[in-house]
Specification:
161 residues; 2 helices; alpha+beta
Length: 161
């Protein structure tokens, strides 16, 4: 879902109670849609939204090191695909206002997948079918059996000859 990470990180920063909600703004810049047509089993990846999220904090009086650590740890937990997408490290700009405060701007590139799922009542018509916005379900394998049933072609004995 597009802009999900921007909204979540903004909400996270506000929850830390060191940024006044009237002094933080966030928005998207340089948005691009990378079309895709990838069947992911239960959903279709239609595109990736690639954008720069801007977080601007006016008159910040807290510890900037703490702010930067919170942003980076949030990214490590909530944006695990950053390395796979080869996204750059966040950029920061700081304007010192006085001995106690500064305006801080953090720019973070994100990529977010946008999926559609089959839905007879969906509002999206594509490839002769009705669809709705949705997410691909991530399935985790809990166990695997190999060579446990000779009746299956995948479980036949392996020969190195």
């Amino acid at each position: 879902m597009a802009l999900k990470k921007l909204k979540q990180l903004n909400h996270f920063l506000l929850q830390q109670n060191f940024v006044d909600e009237n002094k933080i703004a966030s928005w998207m810049e340089s948005g691009k849609l990378d079309p895709a047509n990838k069947n992911e089993g239960d959903a279709l990846l239609v595109c990736r939204c690639h954008y720069t999220a801007i977080f601007s904090i006016e008159g910040f009086t807290g510890n900037p090191d703490l702010l930067f650590v919170l942003v980076c740890t949030w990214l490590m937990i909530n944006d695990a695909q950053r390395d796979n997408y080869e996204l750059p490290a966040p950029d920061i700009d700081i304007d010192i206002l006085d001995n106690d405060s500064a305006d801080i701007e953090i720019q973070i590139e994100f990529k977010e997948d946008i999926h559609i799922v089959p839905d007879a009542a969906g509002t999206i018509e594509y490839d002769g079918q009705q669809w709705a916005l949705g997410a691909s379900e991530v399935r985790t394998v809990d166990e695997i059996a190999v060579n446990d049933n000779a009746a299956r072609a995948t479980d036949l004995p392996v020969s190195n000859t």
